[in-house]
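User: Okay, second chain of the day. Same drill as before: sequence in, structure tokens out.
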Amino acid sequence: MEDDLPTEYDVVVVGTGMTESIVAAAASRIGKKVLHLDSNEYYGGLWATFNFDGLQKWIDDLKAAKNRNNEANISIKDGETFLKASDQYSTVENIEEQWYITTEAELPDVSSKDTQTEGSGDNVNVEGLEKTDKEKKEPVKQWSIDRIKKEYRRFNIDLAPKLLFARGELVELLISSNIARYAEFRAVSRVATFMDGKLAQVPCSRADVFANKTVSVIEKRMLMQLLTSCMEQGADSPEFDDYRDKTFIEYLNTKNLTPIVKHYVVQAIAMATEKTSCRDGVNRTKHFLNSLGRYGNTPFLWPMYGSGELPQCFCRLCAVFGGVYCLKRQLDRVVVKGDKCVAVVTGKQRLELGHLVVGQGHLPPEFVASEGKNQISRGIFITDKSIMQGEKENLTLLYYPPEEPDQEAVTLIELGPSTNACPQGLFMVHMTCKRTKTAKEDLAYIVSKFLRTEPFVSNLGRSLTDSHTQTVSPNKQHVQGDQQTKETIGGVSKPQVLWSLYLNLPASDIELGNSAPHNIYLASGPDLELDFDFAVNQAKNIFKSMYPDEEFLPRAPDPEEIVLEGDEAPGPKFEGNSSDVGEEKQDMEKAEKEE
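Assistant: Same drill. Structure tokens below.
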């Protein structure tokens, strides 16, 4: 099936990452002939979401370090040159996977008669005395390697987990283009912060602020005045003229804020560090506040089934408007003539094109001027409970600033079963920061603070169950003194890590060199920011460079609005409440009778 593609296109897009998919949809939407290639058998590239089995295959592919023999047997014309494409697998480094539990066969024989709920002391459930011997000996259901692998379909694991600001670039684009109908979202229910040695929920809405008992009335007024100033005036206000070259914290220091108010603003709302400029801090605060109240008590949305669903939404729109998709088809060669890319070679075919959009990891190295400085360290963890237990399951965001000068701020997103990220009884924890060493080294200080990573063999006293309540075996429990402190945070036991994966992703600030043809456009991989704004703006810039006079992703019609040739035009679309619709319908029927 290698020679079945049409040979001429307006736009060829290589890679199905976020930026590439948005550009493909935008070009197809205005009637351009688009070919979208990806050498993978899945969508998303470095933005993809996998079930557990799919992730294992992806890891194996990376470790295999494929050496493809893709010598082209295509003849070139006078003045043309072949340039070999890069191998996408070379951009991911330092992959380290580890299990902290054992196989089914090696599980210890822990029976329900040997267990009690942690923290229950000597309390005895009188009703339990009536249980039969069979019930007493029934084994506690524990998580094992085999059990997790067996339930692989229940996992949706992101390579690049990101949230959407409720009034961010991507939400506005999804609404204006009518692509939002392809996806589902859930509001982030809790923004957490680490304060006074324990995790606490950040009051986001006005109601939460005034209901918060840890903040005094005077502090609440301070907080509301500061937030109102940032929201209404913005960073370009004269109030901030004296702080153009200063940090956000230097500005806050002039406001006589109490430590707790300053903590909330810096770490939870602006998500800033000591290096964050005043302008950036104010803009981040405004962005946070502007998105409050639109869809929930926090400003953030999470895409159900993972961030990797969103590139597929744009691919779907591209296909609806005639885009051609071909997975498991790699870019082998780029054909250049003068300062223009005239064709690409894939398999045994030469494909002529007007514009070439190439995702990171596929571009010929001759065109890359800089590999970028903002590489990414990622940690993915399956845990047995939430980092911050609550009455209900929460979707949690935690921003943790660096503790030492050589550390980086870490963004932590915790997902539970209701997001379809993992089976019931487990949680998925994602950590992301700027790379300085390896992913495992960069994230070590956060992992040790919030998670428990001792292997299962040294943790027999801790039985992993399906419930939020942790059980222990009193006969085997031996945690004392400093060890107990290491296993708790704020007096609450830490989640046990069952499985972890560390990896380093490439930087998003990669740049094309001056030698790159003028009709080649680079779509970078995931960036370090929490949201998708970078990818959306990059896609807009690429599209405007290709088609400066065209509208970027105009609204796509709903299926019922599409009129095929020979069909009757659809009836009027009523908007408003049901009574309005009924009245209009009656008026129309009355007018028809009168005619």
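The longest strand covers residues 349-359.

User: Thanks, on to the next one.
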